[in-house]
Write a structure and sequence with these properties.
heterotrimer; A mainly alpha (152); B mainly alpha (193); C mainly alpha (107); B: 193 residues; mainly alpha; Four Helix Bundle (Hemerythrin (Met), subunit A); 2 domains; 9 helices; disordered C terminus; C: 107 residues; 85% helix
């Protein structure tokens, strides 16, 4: 085997390893978004894996393209994803929190009445954040809820 | 089918994208919640842009990405917020008549495919008369490798400039009418007449 | 040749992830779930285009992916901005009120 062929084989092996890791993260995140019980846990699944999985795949692709303009473009795309993906996830979380969406803390029915009331409130706040609920609230002439943590 | 995929593996991606486009289209028709529909329309143009790219129509994909996924989503969202948040129930007759119209239009288009020249046919009208002239002359006249870019930005450069000015004026008018952006909030007791 | 098939597999896996995101987008239930799913779907479309660009060796595809990366982010932020007010009507009313009285307590 010539050194060039060996180098290309090694680059491809590294690329395949990175791509495989990235695919595992992306798929795990997608399954998490589908399966997890409430918004904040889904956000966790989507936000973290999106950034890491995407970066791994982009770096894996960069090993295939060698030194070329395509590599520079891939690096730029990876940089943009690295900046925008966590920011967008944070913005979504922030908006949901400000609108008063409560996290679902537990799935089982707690024995203590206060905890049970909190669970009911969390479920109610999830139901309140659908468009239909906002629409009916508007029709009833209620003031629009803008959340408690709103900046003034 | 399998042979085609083995000779051209990107076909598999095209089929996947088309299947997703179909699913999104059906969901857009079926859903009542207009916010979800607006989000799905954004996803639809994202998907169709990716599909255009896989069909080698890069410039169309570029436009679809910029206009369809970015701006039209926001315009539809603004329109939805100014009107209703959920669609009125549509009667079954209207549903099926719309479906029949779409089906007839699609069938007519498929029928018309038979009259079209083969893809890349050198004797096709698009490649024969003026098109051929442009293809032959562009390199000497302008020296830009992409003929579409050469036509848009150089042969009809003033036309494109006029279009851009019109779009800019329209956007400015919409912003002035809706007051998007607004003014910086002033403190109380300051700037009062 | 083998790398071509590996890239194909990556592209298909990303497409499967896109389909899973789509089902979350269909299901909702809150509007933030939908915004999250749309944003994540956009990231996966960028990935698909990047893989496709390397697969076919056309680096112009990467330009479109770059454009997406920017537009996807801007669109997500803009949608959330709109929903801070819950309705553009209220945002506009507050704005014109502010204009009329020459000052205001909004925000």
């Amino acid at each position: 085997m010539t050194p060039d062929a060996l180098l290309s084989l090694a680059l491809n092996a590294v690329s395949v390893a990175l791509l495989a890791a990235g695919v595992v993260f992306v798929l795990a995140g997608a399954i998490g978004v589908l399966r997890l019980p409430d918004f904040y846990t889904r956000l966790h699944a989507a936000g973290v894996t999106d950034t890491l999985g995407a970066e791994l795949i982009v770096i894996g692709l960069m090993f295939q393209t060698g030194w070329s303009l395509a590599t520079a473009k891939l690096a730029l795309a990876g940089f943009l994803i690295f900046l925008t993906s966590p920011t967008a996830t944070h913005a979504v979380a922030n908006a949901a929190h400000r609108a008063g969406l409560k996290p679902l803390l537990s799935r089982h029915q707690p024995a203590h009445p206060r905890l049970r009331a909190e669970l009911e409130a969390a479920k109610k706040s999830e139901a309140e954040n659908t468009i239909e609920a906002i629409e009916t609230a508007d029709k009833a002439g209620k003031p629009v809820r803008t959340g408690k943590g709103r900046a003034s | 089918m399998i042979d085609m995929i083995v000779t051209d593996p990107t076909l598999l991606i095209e089929y996947t994208l088309m299947a997703m486009l179909l699913a999104v289209g059906v969901a857009i028709v079926r859903l009542r919640d207009l916010f979800a529909v607006v989000m799905l329309l954004g996803v639809y143009s994202l998907l169709s842009a990716a599909w255009f790219v896989s069909l080698d129509a890069l410039d169309v994909g570029f436009t679809e990405a910029a206009v369809g996924a970015g701006i039209s989503t926001l315009l539809l969202l603004a329109a939805m917020l100014l009107t209703a948040r959920s669609a009125e129930p549509v009667s079954a007759i209207r549903h099926w008549s719309a479906f029949a119209v779409a089906l007839a239009g699609g069938a007519a288009l498929f029928y018309a495919i038979g009259d079209m020249p083969a893809f890349g046919d050198p004797d096709a009208p698009a490649n024969a008369y003026v098109g051929l002239q442009y293809l032959e002359r562009t390199q000497a006249d302008i020296g830009v490798p992409n003929v579409v870019t050469a036509v848009l930005a150089s042969y009809r450069g003033f036309d494109t400039l006029g279009e851009v000015v019109v779009i800019f004026a329209a956007g400015l008018g919409v912003m002035l009418l809706l007051g998007m952006g607004g003014r910086k909030p002033r403190k109380d007791g300051e700037g009062e007449e | 040749m083998i790398m071509l098939w590996i890239n194909m597999a990556v592209a298909l896996a990303v497409a499967v992830a896109m389909a899973l995101m789509l089902s979350r987008l269909f299901a909702g239930p809150t509007l933030y779930d939908r915004v999250l799913a749309t944003n994540s779907f956009g990231t996966k479309t960028i990935l698909l285009l990047l893989v496709y660009g390397v697969l076919t060796g056309e680096s112009a595809v990467t330009d479109i992916a770059l454009l997406y990366a920017l537009i996807n982010f801007v669109a997500t932020i803009a949608i959330l901005k709109f929903f801070r007010y819950r309705s553009l009507e209220i945002a506009l009313a507050q704005m014109s009120l502010r204009r009329a009285i020459g000052g205001g307590d909004d925000e």
